Amino acid sequence: MGAGSRLGGIAHLTYYADTVGPLLSATRRLVTLTDRYDGEERGPEWLPASGESWWQATEIMGDGERMSVAEPEREGTDGERLGELPTERRNPASEHMDELPTVEMLALINAEDAKVAGAVATELEQIGRVVDAVAERFQRGGRMFYIGAGTSGRLGVLDASECPPTFSVSPELVQGIIAGGDGALRLSSEHSEDSREEGARDLRAAGFGSDARPDTLVGIAASGRTPYVLGAIEYAKSQGALTVGLSCVPGSALAQAAEMAITPVTGPEVLTGSTRMKAGTATKLVLNMLSTGVMIRTGATFGNLMVNMCASNAKLMDRAERIVAAGVGCDRATAVELLKQAGKDVKAAILMGRQGVGFQTARQRLAAAGGILADALRIHSD
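and the corresponding structure tokens:
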């Protein structure tokens, strides 16, 4: 980026900017930006070119005076201008955030974060309907897939990755797909989100809907307009699958395209357009509810105990011992012995301890109850 200079009281910054088009072909563009002078807004002067991507730029000049260049608004896939979306608007409460003392700045961020739980609470009925629908499909051999780009994709992959160690389920049962592949978990791959075809292709490559399985797709996009996610939703619908749209913009393209929509409206971000913040937090809370709720409905818990957990390290073995002790109502030493006899199977260990049966009988009773510990205990309560 070239150096800034002051001519006639106006700050000028001239530089060449790389702009990346849909096919990753870079072009060199000469751009001149003009600052404010005596309170008058001047510039910037843009040289538009079709197919370019735009950006936001802020430069602090030598004397500390600020020059800001806002991203020109673009049409969304649903016809709505990007800058008009609730998640993209400027938050009046944080317009002078950079001028606040650090603790006050953090208090402002915290106050905005406190609004997220309320936004999610308004969607509980709809989240509940999704949980019940997915649980019913799980009982018939279905799976749940999350798909998204950027922060949305990372959160989906994170939630899916937590299911095997938490609930001792196959990694195939809940799967996360991110635009750009697993490499995008660490290194951003923003251009990948612009292709509907890639979304459909990635979902198909993951085996979604194979063998006529009653799978569910949860498309995640804070703005509700990401082409990659919309393409995946279209493909899932063509397979007769249940589709769910999770976004933070009411009436979005995603909400309209999916069979079921979850839309916690989190409003403008404290840092304009940074949807990794409130929108990301809301997304994580909803995904927690979806995966946990479905696992509860399919028998992975006993009360609030994670009886389907996999005791794969020292910390988790300690937790398993405490769960068995609580589930049986016995001391720690007895729980350790029960787990040993049950081969670390927490459900079987609890059933053995409560009903005084051996491992094989416990396994048979669990199988007859569909793996649901509470049902196995109820059936054989005599």
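(Above: one complete record from the training split.) Confidence is low (pLDDT under 50) at residues 1-79.
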